[in-house]
Amino acid sequence: MVLPKNFLWGGATAANQAEGGVLDGGRGLSNIDMMPHGAERKKVATGDKKMLSWEDNYYYPAKKAIDMYHHYMEDIKLFAEMGFKVYRMSLSWSRIFPNGDDEKPNEEGLLFYEKIFKELRKYGIEPLVTIAHFDVPLNLIENYGSWRNRKLIDLFVRYARTVLTRYKGLVKYWLTINEINILLHQPFVGGGIVFEEGENKEEVKYQAAHHQLVASALATKIAHEVDAENQVGCMLAGGNNYPYTCRPEDYQEAINRDREGYFFIDVQARGKYPNYALKKFERENLNIVMESEDADILAASPVDFVSFSYYSSRTVSAHPEDYEHTTGNVFGTIKNPNLPSSAWGWQIDPLGLRNSLNQMYDRYQKPLFIVENGLGAVDVPDENGFIDDEYRIEYIRQHIQAFKDAVEVDGVELLGYTTWGCIDLISASTGQMSKRYGFIYVDRDDEGNGTLKRSKKKSFYWYKQVIESNGENLSSKTISLSN
Ligand code: BG6
Predict the structure, then answer these.
(1) Which of 45, 56, 30 lies closest to 194 in space, CA to CA?
(2) Which of 72, 124, 177, 482 has its CA 20 to 30 A from that of 192?
(3) Model pLDDT, residue 483
């Protein structure tokens, strides 16, 4: 058997894309609730268009999402049926601290997640909990300027301490901040940042990043103090950059672009700023304010493991204008002519996953965890309502094979694998429902119509078999569709 017996197979979701119930149970509003479906979504995501309240004529998919707030018992039962060992989910910060700066947490919010964790444990499923997944309470954006303000460190730490203490014994695996590098590309999504006229955007982003990094290190410290069993990870929007040609300047560009993401993980995994980042601040005259104690805080609490999302590799060049471009997770890329693409233009590169695992393991020498991977596709139910999603099975099969090779051939230490959107949910980039990743179909469309009924796709039965065989049987010919 290639993978260890305790390999953590499962799936992943995030509160903002699944829960809905944004006004239920005393929850406050957050950045992501304000992300409209449609053409304006991108500008809001980048912080270039300010939308801090619901406006008429827009549809806000996060309001109801797939209403997991009311369906979690049913959903967890289905995860258990697939044999999940782990379920990655996130907490909604504003469900616990509705305004972000409240003195006391919202008990109803805390109870909601407690019930989820107990339900997961009933089935022997380990929760893997992201403390912040594209989530900042609206009040902190409106009245503090969000993560550009150092006060956010204390407020995040209070939130982290609350949940780490409350869920002691129920949750052991934690991620501090989802895809922390998204802050550089979609600052509103990654950090609730809306730019003011004339601001130095690069400076604001790296200042916010510094605050997130310090807050993440403090949360890691508290996690270890609360329970020595706790395992804390950082989380990168992954996928390495290939040089388009073997021209040295293209290779140099690939190194530089990889560093944009590694910057965060270098700090979180090694406990200090890399020299290339300090040089960048100096060269570009970015005045990043750091307090004297920050270096010690970062050094004292590196993460235990490194997690990342992987959908695709990227391709770069010193002369990007010469090439055709396509979309990708979080930000675009030059189109790699050697790779096929999904219906949304994201390129498909299973070997790139093995390469990423190797690069990161070489760099950090810490256990890795693939916490997102999957294919966003349009699913069309047949006359019986069944979805034969062999395309999704094929994508995931190839990626599983790639990480198995990284473990078996290269010796990478890998804790687990959670596919993204194991149940259909709202797409982060587009706000669509029709960009589906799930093993479980949810009857809801891009305009919010549908019964919300859950049904099993072919991939549901296939993944169940994959887990049962600990990744040994990846064939879809041997699956049973009977139950
Ligand atoms: C990652 C996020 O960016 O990729 C998820 O952590 C997101 O929240 C996922 O949903 C897939 O992206 P998209 O845009 O297809 O939903």
Answers:
(1) 45
(2) 72
(3) 60
How many Cα atoms sit within 13 Å of 380 on the Cβ side? 2
Structure tokens at 309: 């999302």
pLDDT at 26: 98
Q: Determine if ligand 1 sits within 6 Å of the CB of residue 62.
A: no
Whose structure tokens read 């065989």? 469
DSSP letter string, 322-389: GS-EE--SSS-EE--TTS-B-TTS-B--HHHHHHHHHHHHHHH-S-EEEEE----B-----TTS----
Question: Between the CA atoms of 363, 364, 370 and 374, what dihedral angle is there, to the nearest 10 degrees?
Answer: -30
Do residues 108 and 60 touch, judged by C-beta distance below 8 A? no
Q: Is ligand 1 within 6 A of the CB of residue 419?
A: no
Q: Which residues does the annotation mark as catalytic? A: 179, 372
The most distant pair of C-alpha atoms in the chain lies apart, rounded to whole Å, by 65
Query: Which phi and psi (to 5°) does residue 391 adopt?
Result: -60, -40
Return d(Cα 77, Cα 263) in angstroms, integer: 39
The answer to whether 459 touches 377, Cβ cutoff 8 Å, is: no
Q: In this structure, are residues 232 and 223 in contact, taking their beta carbons and an 8 Å threshold?
A: yes
How many CB atoms within 10 Å of residue 52?
Answer: 16
**Would you say 257 and 314 are in contact if contact means Cβ atoms under 8 Å apart?**
yes
What integer pLDDT is reported at residue 330 of this predicted model?
Answer: 84
User: What is the C-alpha separation between 346 and 336, in angstroms, rounded?
Assistant: 10
Contacts of 195 by beta carbon, 8 Å cutoff, 6+ apart: 47, 48, 187, 201, 204
CA distance 260 to 83: 37
Question: Rounded to 5 degrees, what are φ and ψ at 74?
Answer: -65, -40
- Which bin fits 411, alpha (ψ -120 to 50), beta or left (φ > 0)? left
| Residue of 427, 430, 446 to mutate, ligand 1, most atoms within 8 A of C-beta | 427
Confidence (pLDDT) at 482: 73
**H or E stretch including 49?**
none
Distance from Cα 395 to the centre of ligand 1, integer Å: 16
CA distances from 235 to 279, 341, 406 (A): 24, 25, 19
Which residues touch 64 (CB under 8 Å, ≥6 apart)? 20, 21, 448
The tokens for 12 are: 């992943």
Residues 343, 42: Cα–Cα separation, whole Å: 19
> Residues of the chain whose pLDDT is less than 50?
none
- Per-residue model confidence (pLDDT) at position 341: 97
Burial class (CB in 10 A: 0-12, 13-18, 19+), 380: exposed
Q: What is the C-alpha to C-alpha distance for residues 419 and 58, in angstroms, rounded to an integer?
A: 30
Residue type, 150: R
- The reply to whether the predicted model has a pTM over 0.90 is yes
User: Which residues are CB-neighbours of 365 under 8 A, at least 6 positions away?
Assistant: none
| CA atoms of 134 and 115, how far apart (whole Å) | 23
